[in-house]
Automatic annotation (TrEMBL):
The chain crosses the membrane at residues 20-40, 46-68, 80-103, 174-192, 219-245, 251-274, 281-299, 305-328, 340-362, 368-389. The keyword Membrane applies. Keywords: Membrane, Transmembrane, Transmembrane helix. This is MFS transporter. It is a multi-pass membrane protein. It comes from Actinoplanes subglobosus. Residues 175-410 form the Major facilitator superfamily (MFS) profile domain. It is found in: Cell membrane. SUPFAM superfamilies: MFS general substrate transporter (SSF103473).
Amino acid sequence: MRTGRSSFRHALSLGRRFFFAAAVARLGVATSGLAVFWAVQGSSGSFGTAGVATGAFAVADALAGPQVARLVDRHGQRRVMPAVTALFAAAGLLLIVACSFAWPGMSAVVLSAVVGATVPPAGALSAARWRKVAPGDADGVLARALSMEGAVNDVVFLAGPVLVTTLGTVLAPWAGLVLAVSLLVAGMAVLLSDRASEPPPAGSSPGALMDRRLLNRRFAGLFAANLALGFFFGGIGVAITAFAFAHQAGALSGLITAAAGVVSLFAGLAYGAVAPGRPAPVMLVAGVVLTAGCAVLALTPSVPLMFAGYAVVGGCVALVLIPGSILLQQATVAEVYTQAMTWINSASALGIATSAPVVGFVVQHHGWPAGFLVLAALTACLPAAIAVLPTTAGLTQEAEAFPVVSGRGP
């Protein structure tokens, strides 16, 4: 344990300034989607309008994020992100005004889409800087840094919904959106001021919608794995909520999910402290546990057992995400890493958007156990994708062997 703590301190000594700034910005990211929902619902009084606005936010984020990241890789973080952050802040403030003065619902939907399209990819920017300050990763700094990034993700996505819900209830429906915009702008300002850790711009990005250097089998496999992980993320909340209501414990559904998040946080830190040299087997085992665990949870007879069972299953999430991040580092050259991260996030978002309504439909018509079984079937794509990941081919050979489909671009 002492060795692990010393290793984390060493990693922090290399990236303390941008890491904590990015953590603040990521809390803003974690609150932004739900904050949009609360703001629009409070203004319109319609859950339908709020759902459309939140969907517009998520789709715009998934589509625009990789293109913003591509500009970052090509021109540098300090040349691109100030303008993107300013657009995000302006759109967020306009959405707050629209919700405060009850502008027509379509205005809120359009502004929500603009907010989503300009959300700064704080996690990708931070991860790219770790790659700059720890080149080669001879002493395992990147593994520990990425485990800290995973721990931050767990913390902000646990705390974010609580903050938005509390502010929206106590102050005003749009108060959570004020918090999200403030955190993102403040965190990005500090992160971008750290010039020493900024990766150099690549200067070119061949390909139309995606840089051709991302077209290798390892990246395609990781994209598929994160799509499958998105299936899990999208369906598990629906299934657990349905279970809780069926057992007259609806108020506990959030706590069941939070308990698993805490376990995932510590599992990720433990993984980073050990920093094993072969992340793919760890990722594969965790993916199998997620898949089998969803099927076993369909048999859960009581709420206490669901707490314990999902703590084990959900605790494996970090053991997929962190090794996957390490493999992504290995599968991509530094010049395209930021956009690689955002494409991975878009894959997860697509999985969430697909799984949530499917599991919801199954639960509605066949009950919560069937929801868990369908979720297990969807999540089975995760270990399948990991199992076929190439592990030995070099990046150049992989890129050459993978058929180029994006065409040539500037």
